[in-house]
Amino acid sequence: MALHLSGSIAFRLSIASIFVLCAFCSRAQAQPAQAAKPTSITGVYNGTCASDQGPMKFKLSLTLQDRGSLVGEFTLYVAQGADQKAYTCDVKGRFIATNRMVQLIRGGWKSPPPVGLDMSAMNGVFDPEAGNGAGRISGTMRGGLSPKFEATRDADESAKLVAAEKAPAAQPGSRPPNTIIPRTEIEGMYVGTYGSNPDDKVPAKLYVKFIDDGSVNGKLDGLFTFDVPPSAGAKPITYTYKLTGYYGGSLVFYSVKPLGKPAPDAYALQQISAEFDRTPLVTGRNGQMEFTYIREQILAKMVGSNGLPGKNKFEGKWDKDASTKLDTLMAAAQRGAENPAGATALAQAPNSPSSSARAPESAGQPGASKQSASAQIDSVMAAVRGYNAHAAPVARPSLVGVFNGTYTRANEPPTKFKLTITHNGQSPDIEGVATIYLPAGSGTKAYTYSLKGAIDFNGAFHLLVNEWDTIPPKDFKDFKSMGFNGEFRSNVNQHTARIISLPTANLASFVIPQFEAAWDAKESADIKGTIAAQKAVGDADLAAALKARDEVLKNAKPMQLASKDLVRKSQAYWDVYRNDFIREVFDGGFADDVDKDPAFQIMFINYVDEFSKNCAAYFPGAHQTVTITTTTTTRPPGGAFNTTVTTKTVEVDSRFIPKYVEFSGVDPAPGSEQEKEQTAKTFA
Q1: Residues 26-52: pLDDT tens digits?
Q2: What CA–CA distances, in Å, run from 123 to 29, 96, 139, 180, 193?
Q3: pLDDT tier at 212, thresholds 50, 70, 90
Q4: What is the Cα–Cα distance from 252 to 92, expressed in whole angstroms?
Q5: Cα(650)–Cα(405) distance, rounded to whole angstroms?
Q6: Beta strands in 110-259 (DSSP E)
Q7: Do the Cβ atoms of 245 and 269 come closer than 8 Å?
Q8: Residue 103, beta-bridge partner list
Q9: Residues 6 or more apart from 587 whose CB is under 8 A from it?
């Protein structure tokens, strides 16, 4: 269980690591349960290990189960200033009694993991005589630094753990907490859905059968079937995979092979790892956190056809009635996959009450009319041809693309929009170009603006407003609230996708409350052309505005033109800036909500400060001295709070004082218009 600084935390051991652990354990001779009793490893151990942050204490709680399996908890105590905070995770593994070897892998954290610490697995040896006969585990933490560790069993805590395990269960027939599902209970059929998101989930079934072949973990045989429609509204095609694996607390199918035609790439798979769901954590009688595995619910993660972990997952529930006929149903499903022509007779199990009352059903399509074998084959081939024709898209559905849909703001009717999202492929940062279609006379008028944002850690995305790319609409309110916060959902097999809005608790003042838009394959195939068309929607307005300005300048008398004190800069001067915002402020070409923009607020404060410092001789008569006091509180990771107070005094034009104070973060004066406005915003 290596500890080292890292930017991310691995929550699951890789399937490859599990294979190595299984292969090692399977070579060890299985020991009778009574052989391990004299040197039982069960107990609570207190120890220390090394890390980049110095020595750290930990507590390891282990329970020896059937056939040498271990389950328990690992708690790490991390110093944070003068305090220590405990971080607890599940562990499971194997104790090999012949050489007293201990192998553990980490499960999920029971709270957010410690920042900058990565833990993977633990390898050690148990010495029952060490620690004055109390028992000790020593070894190394697996990982980049491989620090050594040593932990001695605590007699009192271990006695409480053993007593709690021997105590009768609270409910008849219930399992002790934190114990895996027995192998005799995992068999059955699990019915649920398979896919990566709600838009492409399809009906699926997982058949699981345990075979005791004398090895430590035994053997699992199974089938995985699912129905995928080749296109919207088309008859689903059933795909079947033969499974081989083992059970060691989780179901690991290391061999997954298609029976008959392989599934489309979006659903194809090579490996499956499934775990039973579990109840929420509660504090047990021994003071430790406990949970119980839910035998009726299972979650499986998949490795795709490329050999890499994918987003697809299977969520299923145990079918009690079907599980009583597991052998019959598995045989029927396997024969149906190997012989599609005879699939019509396989949908029902023999002796089904309704089997003699209705015509046979085709796989994955209850109630289908009886067809000849050749007709069924023709039907399947037609569906395959339809899929192949449909699977030659102009562009692959992804978040990078063009989406057309509608958005809704408070107290406004639904409004159509087009959003084009681009990504440089190297970072989570994304950019967008949005065109909104606002009412104008008897029709609509298009306006385009740019956005910047990122793909979030949970797979969602957000885009915040940058600036208008066309002439802004007149009297348009709350431009800064025209961003997007949502998630991308695709159905790759049917070549469709959409984006939908997500709750915006942390971005409420910057994003659109609700929206939904469909991915456009044709426009997404030419993103550059689409963006060019979006930005060109205001060309006519711009040309008309420039023409009107030229007419004014052409016909105006000299005294009607700008005063000698008005400064103008060339376009070459403004081109050196990253965006056009500063020029808009300089020339007065900004929207009426510019004072809500953080960039404008910073520029306003800096302008006042610089004018006070360098241009004191040019102040008008109506100016005042303003003192701003700022208190800043910071706390570095693991450190104590640090408070600093800074004060600055500036000369300010009286017209600028209210906004200067507001932008500086100072509370407005009681009863002032600024206080009333702030109160109104708070209630809103």
Answers
A1: 444 444 433 333 358 999 999 988 777
A2: 19, 12, 6, 21, 38
A3: confident
A4: 15
A5: 50
A6: 121-127, 136-142, 148-153, 188-195, 202-211, 219-228, 237-247, 251-259
A7: no
A8: 94, 123
A9: 568
201-205 long-range contacts (CB < 8 A, ≥24 apart) are 202/226, 202/227, 202/228, 202/229, 202/236, 202/267, 203/227, 203/236, 203/364, 204/314, 204/316, 205/316, 205/333
Backbone φ and ψ of 161, nearest 5° = -65, -45
Name the residue type at position 133. G
CA-CA distance, 249 to 90, in Å (whole number)? 12
Token digits of residue 336 = 């149906």
Grade residue 214 by pLDDT with cuts at 50, 70 and 90. Answer: confident
Cα dihedral value 226, 227, 228, 232, nearest 10: -150
Q: What is the mean pLDDT of the chain?
A: 76
Q: Is 261 left (phi over 0), alpha (psi -120 to 50) or beta?
A: beta
How many CB atoms lie under 10 A from the CB of residue 213?
A: 9
- DSSP strand pairing (121-127 vs 293-304): unpaired
Contacts of residue 412, Cβ cutoff 8 Å, sequence gap at least 6: none
Global pTM value: 0.49
Distance CA 168, CA 152 (A): 28
Res 407 pLDDT > 90 = yes
Task: Please state, for a pLDDT cut of 90, what percent of the chain lies above it.
Answer: 25
SS3 state at 131: coil
N-to-C CA span, the chain: 50
Q: Is the pLDDT of residue 261 over 60?
A: yes
Count of alpha carbons within 13 angstroms of residue 84, beta-carbon side: 9
DSSP β-ladder status, 443-455 and 429-440: antiparallel
